[in-house]
Hints:
Radius of gyration: 26 Å
Strand content: under 5%
Shape: elongated
Number of helices: 10
Number of domains: 2
Largest sheet: none
Order of helices and strands: HHHHHHHHHH
Distance between the termini: 25 Å
Amino acid sequence: MNVATAMGLVIAIGALTMSVLLEGGELQAFVNFPAMLVVFGGTAGAALISFPTATVVQFPRLVRQVFLFRPTPPLLVARKLVSLAERARREGLLALEEELSGIEDPILRRGVILVIDGTDPELVKSVLLSVMAVEHHEHENQVSLLEAMGGYAPTMGIIGTVMGLVHVLGSLSDPTKLGSAIAVAFIATFYGVASANLLWLPMASKLRKQAETHQYLGEMILEGIASIQSGENPRILQERLEPYLPKEHHGRSWKEEDSDAVPGRPQEKPEFSQA
């Protein structure tokens, strides 16, 4: 579970709830199923019109990604690259074939396979850059889906409010009910603005940051693969990878256990999929 995401959602919803209660309002007044249908159904329909079905159906996975993603610490990736470099220098590049079963990252795995096959270094770099570019494009498509939903939701809320006001104006014969009817009409606007700014846009921002982290690790892997293939000294590789690490790891021994990792447990990767 991504604690920051869950905590942020709880704090935001809690703040809105407390503000209503402190003003003496009732939470039940903010529950209106027709308004929910207009806002959430309209937003989903607009997303289907705007994006390919293959992208929209990934929505549940994207939500799960926001709440469950745990990034791989860069130090773990750097350690693995140095370890591969040490073995390749000691036993040769073909010995890396035995390491494939323990490599989870798809970019690193593909790079090691190309190195084992004796692929030209420039071609290895070109292939890995192409893979990273395709992944980046897929990530952008999926983030764009949530950003678009963040734009549609407030508009759907306004549409719902207008529909509610039309209904109110058609019932002017009973002025005693106008106040409550108008309040209900504006609930749709509340749903649209709240869902956009508490859900869709923050989730899009979170996914974009996760994609940037994934791209950052890909650049580190590209640097490491090139060093391994050229037979560079592992100590030199460590120096080349150090700038990619948080400052607290600069100048320290990489043999120390990383407090962010659980030994023997593979770290979770972003579940971005084909658009």
